[in-house]
Please model this.
Amino acid sequence: MKTIIEPFRIKSVEPIRMTDAAERDRILRRAGFNPFLIHAEDVLIDLLTDSGTGSMSAQQWAGVMRADESYAGAASFYRFQESLQAITGFAQVLPTHQGRASERILFELMGGPGKVVPNNAHFDTTRANVEHSGAEARNLPIPEAALPADRHPFKGNLDVAALETLIAEVGAARIPLVMVTITNNSGGGQPVSLANLRALRAVCDRHGLPLFLDACRFAENAWFIKQREEGQAHRPVRDIVREIFDLADGATISAKKDGLVNIGGVLLLRDPDLFRRASELLILTEGYVTYGGLAGRDLEAMAQGFQEVVEEDYLAYRIRSTAYLGEKLLAAGIPIVEPPGGHAIYIDAAAFCPQLPPEQFPGQALVCALYRQGGLRACEIGSVMFGGEGRPAPAMELVRLAIPRRVYTQSHMDYVAECAAEVFAERRRLRGLRIVEAPAVLRHFTARFAEL
Ligand code: F0G
Model:
């Protein structure tokens, strides 16, 4: 059979409240043309993020009921620990409430003034935590990452030559660790190859540097390796995942992505001394080491979620459904970041509406049009998110359609593609925006706009 079906049946449903275009226009105006300010029940298909928005399985809900809520040494913690040990091979595992909590602890311990942290592309909370420690965050993507139409199979790769240059320039002593984000979220959800990870390991070994993963979407990355990398097709995804983690000295994970849960995070550390100091910080601000700011039920949900996410039927469906949406948009003539990423499709808004210059926020204009047309909620990743006084213009104006895990069906994706195609047909009518009010930092969450 050619059709890849959703490998699950639906046992519990959540109604979507239908709206019409006139109502949505009123809602959009009330929200200052910023979909972050729209109430979720006024959204038909919510593609704002794939983080914490997935559906849990019946087994995960069973774990929620079974959970042990003891303060210390809960059975749920040991199930969580065993699950992570089995998937990653790391013996030392800390739970945190989400990815950025792991990042905060890591960079409080390893960052600091004068240090430089290289990454293929820092996610915004990672960058913020590096900078909060006083260190500098340096992105070193391969050049293909900046070309939306380039179909490099591993566009998430870190530029190994650029890393060598950086080490020669600033000296290994100022680099506390090398980080790799799998998949590269800021760069289009693009995967990193095993060959790239092995090469980075070799560079790190030569200079005595630790290699860390931002492993939020490790299973999706491993699936791309199995599909695209020479000599990997025969390997079980679990083996590939294990090799990825074996190459690393540590990892931060937001379990809200490939942990298949609504809340939770993980910090993995190989070095016993670092682990001891991280445990102390965890107790200081998150919670005791056997719960890390979570309830026992959250640990149970993670223990199960990390096992389900490496099931190959799930990954085949997951990556295929993202590609399916990407192909439909391309067939309608819509420019996207190619090839389609793992968790999201990124529309190239600058090419979608070339009549709008960056200062009129083409991405935000497109986000608003998608909401008006079909009640879709998407996220601008361009001049609204990264611009502002004294900041360099971003390389791309993108709109991200992030797909929650196990939530929407193929007909929902057909609807999304139809909505985008209708907006594309009328793209010359898209109106630019100006900012009416905005805070100084992270302005995309709360800024209000007016149409030009
Ligand atoms: N690293 C990456 C690559 C991420 O995509 C995220 C979150 C984080 C770290 C932080 O994790 O939210 O659990 O603290 N990304 C979400 C998104 C918010 O929409 O892409 P967190």
Remarks:
- The CA atoms of residues 10 and 394 lie 41 Å apart.
- The pocket of F0G is lined by residues 49, 51, 98-100, 123, 125-126, 181, 185, 214, 216, 254, 256, 265 (CB under 6 Å).
